[in-house]
Amino acid sequence: MEFWLLSLPLDKTSVASLEKLKRTIAKTNLATCGKLSIPELKVGTLDNLLSVSDNLSQLDTLTESVIKKTCHFMGEVMEQASDKVLEKGLVNGVDLVKYVTKFQWDRAKYPTSLPLRVLADNINKQVSQVDAEFKSRASAYNSIKSSLHCLERKAEGNLHTRGLNDIVTREDLLESEYLTTLLVVVSRGDYKQWDSTYESFSLFVVPRSSRMLYEDTQCGVFSVILFRRAVSDFRERAKQSKFTVRQCNMEVEEKHLQEIQRLNVDNKEQHVVFVRWLKVNFREVFVAWIHLKALRVFVESVLRYGLPVSYQALLLQPDRKRVKRLRQELSSLFMHLEPSAMSNKVDASFDVPEMIQQEYFSYICFQINTNMLDTGK
Questions:
Q1: Does residue 84 have a pLDDT over 70?
Q2: Residue 37: which residues within 8 A CB-CB, separation 6 or more?
Q3: Rounded CA gap, 121 and 56, in Å?
């Protein structure tokens, strides 16, 4: 859902244009329109306002990026579609859209008695802290998932490479001072060859000791008992016949299984904690972001329209299919505010390397997009 946060001066011409805009919107359904309540804040000096304006622009970009990161990661962790994630992204008990449309300045969290720079610094500290903690928590969460995935992948590979802890038991392995058990992977089409040749690989193979322990659609795992002194020769002869001798240390296999179980427990615990953290901090940063937008409207209104502070903040929700028409209507109605802005865009002939072209209007306009998981927005 996209919103346009507009600020218009309350001079006679602008007020008349605003009333005309409301009538046009009511007739054409170009958008829904409502007032946004922004308290009067401490203005300070012009130099201070210019400095704060620059800082707020950078902070706006940072805050939006943190919101998108937390929301996107919440979708990944919860393994749900974006609309389901945003349904759970409640702010003060209401959904994002309703919070924006019913916005009320939180005087307890952001006291209006504080200077603009202090308010901006407080939001910056809050967002930066969430950003830093998010990176740390996401790294720890991904590390556990990656380790678990790596171990599970080893356990789920083919019989030539996967772990054998869920296939072989201690009872399957005869180990003594002189005798040992080897495990051999044999392709299903070579079973007869294995049965007829394995005893010939060494004089020290126990006759008729081969036994199938497991098979899948491609191979089988056979055990064979032999004297320890013959292991190297047996391996070499088996390799020549395209049979794969696997190592199987039960202590290592059991530790591997225990590590998977431990990581599974850690992963589940981290999942619960991380989802809770993401939800809480997504809400907190979203609240800060909307206050930041309101703060920008106030600062830019003073800079653009002058003192005493006199402006009207509006919240438009444009019809997505008629955005161009709405922009044309706004440009026509408020061209008197700054005639040089009629082109609506920065002069493209002003050649600055890697310059980002941004729309510029005669009226103040900031966008709020609640479709946080839509990277194309």
A1: no
A2: 103, 104, 105, 313
A3: 9
- d(C-alpha 301, C-alpha 29), whole Å: 27
| CA-closest candidate to residue 160, choices 238, 237, 255 | 238
Residues 6+ apart with CB under 8 A from 199: 205, 207, 208
Predicted structure pTM score: 0.74
Give the burial string for 195-229 (b: 16+ CB within 10 Å, else e).
Answer: eeebbebbebbeeebbeeebbeeebbbbbbbbbee
Report the percent of the chain where pLDDT is more than 90: 64
Residues 6+ apart with CB under 8 A from 134: 66, 69, 70, 73, 281
Give pLDDT tens digits for 242-285. Answer: 999 987 777 776 777 788 888 888 888 888 899 899 989 999 99
**Distance (Å, whole) CA 54 – CA 74:** 31
pLDDT in tens, 180-205: 999 999 999 999 999 999 999 999 99
Residue 290 CA to residue 94 CA, distance in Å, equals: 14
Give 281-340 pLDDT, tens digit per residue: 999 999 999 999 999 999 999 999 999 999 999 999 999 999 999 999 999 999 999 756
357: helix, coil or strand?
A: coil
Q: Of all helices (H) and strands (E), which one includes residue 369? A: strand 364-369
Angle at 287 between CA 372 and CA 41, to 5 degrees: 130
DSSP-based three-state secondary structure for 215 = strand
Task: Please name the residue that has the structure tokens 């001066």.
Answer: 9
Query: Distance between CA atoms of 170 and 168, rounded to whole angstroms?
Result: 7
